[in-house]
Amino acid sequence: MAYIALYRQWRPQSFDAVVGQDHISRTLKNAIKTNRIVHAYLFTGPRGTGKTSTAKILAKAVNCLEPKDGEACNHCSSCTRINSGTYMDIVEIDAASNRGIDEIRDLREKVKYAPVEGKYKIYIIDEVHMLTTEAFNALLKTLEEPPKHVIFILATTEPYKIPLTVLSRCQQFDFKRIGTRYIVEKLKEICAEESLPVNENALQIIAKKAEGSMRDALSLLDQCLSFSENEITEEILASILGTVDRDFIKNIVQALNEKDYGTMITMIDSLIQEGKDIRLFAHDLVEYLRNLILVKISSQSAHKLDLPDNLLRILLAQSKMFSTDALFQILEVLSEGESQLKFSTQPRITLELSLIKAAGIAGKGEKGFAEPQALIKKQPGQKTAASAAKKEVVSPEAEEAEKEDQVTEPKGAEPSIDLIKSCWKNVLALVKKSNRSTHAYLMEGEPVELKDREIILLFHPQMKIHMEKIGEPANKSLIEKVLLEVFKHKLTVQGTMAYTPDEGDKLLAEVKEMFGDVDMEIIE
Q1: Which fold has domain 180-241?
Q2: Quick check: pTM over 0.90?
Q3: Which helix (H) or strand (E) holds 456?
Q4: What residues are paired with 126 via a beta bridge?
Q5: Which residues are CB-neighbours of 488 under 8 A, at least 6 positions away?
Q6: Architecture of the structural domain at 417-515
Q7: What fold is seen in the domain 6-174?
Q8: Residue 274 CB: number of other CB atoms within 10 A?
Q9: Which of 34, 135, 190, 471 could bridge across to 131 with cysteines, CB 3.0–4.6 Å?
């Protein structure tokens, strides 16, 4: 006998067997018990959440010869024929391949005929949003005044594409994503029944990867069983999914905290050598850091993560290495890096730069970023803006906001590039107060040199538009005004693109070809 996929073997045959949709199962069972069955239902929700299965269960329940408490008996002749797929009064239509007006006209003619075997003739139209506008219009009159023996069950993942005139004629049920806990429990039940050796941590990963879809979880479990006849472990899942195991992420977070750049670069290299997807790794790393934050800020949040106890212990231990502020800033940096990876032509470099930048934050320890006040020595008798301000009684929220916005006035000495770098956060804060757009452009540049009171800002090649924007008169004027306020000297800014070796080598070769083999150097 041919093998049947797990998701087909374990398709629910009763309302109680539908996972994670109790609100829908209960409503439909009560409707059948009280004989309040309407002529049209619309089931909406993400893929793999039980829409088509529930439609078949409903069709079976209304035609069952011996229903009990709103459930089909699964033993009578009608239930047996429905389960085997030979029942004539249940018609399944795929709207993706039968989407035209001709098919719907044919359907309108057929609904006039009485059912052959059961009490109702059921039409299950899957992916109904794929019907054309003309087809919907043709179906509208039938939905409005259908024959008493006909029930329509429409299913879709995109209800917003269905005309409102159709929606208003249906009783709508929204299927929600199935929780990780429910998927794991169902997978355990299936593995026990099938005598399948599976590690519980592996089931957690499968459930998380399924993203609320029971069908996806069972398909992935089926794939794992084909890969290995022995116990399915996290390592096997990592091989199949192209992801990294949790120990790898734990170790890279450890290296990030210790500012161990060598280890981080080596680990990224091993990731690439093994053929892993960098973007997928970045996604998993961001999610891991999100979990670190939740564990750090609240024990109640930790219990809602649906994670194994051993992983929670690891997260709790690692969360103590960082301050909450540092974790937020690291997550922000890596989230931005993950977004850039989608469009980057050099994903490895983008990821490495994000990790190095994040390590710079983590390396500050429990205090997160070092405060600018600690980097600038005060002149005798000089007061900072914060110390000169009058003390007021304020709420903790206002006090916290004031601390974030405090800007230290530097000493009046001639500014150096080191001083500019140490106070750059202050400059960005003041620019942000005046104009958020200018701040967005300026924050992509990094001060690298000071020439004749002109600050050279280095921009990544992909940030060319930001470099051009800071050169516009309005933006440049605002930046220079802030620089004067912070450094007490008239300074200006000039953007330059980061040097790309490939472009430089090509330019050098062209110049040598034109002028011969002479001594020269590239000045950025």
Answers
A1: Helicase, Ruva Protein; domain 3 (1.10.8)
A2: no
A3: strand 454-459
A4: 94, 155
A5: 409, 410, 412
A6: 2-Layer Sandwich (3.30)
A7: Rossmann fold (3.40.50)
A8: 11
A9: 135
Residue 455: strand pairing partners = 450, 493
Give the model's confidence band at 160: pLDDT under 50 very low, under 70 low, under 90 confident, else very high: very high
Question: Minimum mean pLDDT among 38-47, 132-141, 242-251, 513-522: which range?
Answer: 513-522
Collapse the DSSP code of 492 into the 3-class scheme (helix H, G, I; strand E, B; otherwise coil) and give the result. strand
Of the chain, the percentage scoring pLDDT greater than 90 comes to 29
**Nearest in space to 248 (alpha carbons), one of 282, 199, 223, 220:** 282
* Among the listed residues 482, 449, 434, 444, the one whose alpha carbon sits nearest the alpha carbon of residue 466: 444
* Token duo for residue 35: 């004989």
Q: Which CATH number fits domain 246-362: 3.90.870.10, 3.40.50.1220, 1.20.1050.10, 1.20.272.10?
A: 1.20.272.10
Locate all alpha helices (DSSP H) within 415-493, ordered by sequence.
Answer: 417-434, 436-442, 464-470, 473-487
Block residue for tokens 């200018």: 438
Q: Rounded to the nearest 10 degrees, what angle do helices 200-210 and 214-227 cross at?
A: 130
Q: Which tokens belong to 480?
A: 């220079």
Instruction: Give the tokens for residue 16.
Output: 């109680």
In sequence order, which residues have a C-beta less than 8 Å from that of residue 53 and are 6 or more positions away?
11, 12, 18
pLDDT tens digits for 395-424? 444 444 444 444 444 445 578 888 888 888
Kindly list the domain boundaries of the chain, sorted by start residue: 6-174, 180-241, 246-362, 417-515
Nearest residue to 239 via CA among 205, 266, 279, 195 = 205
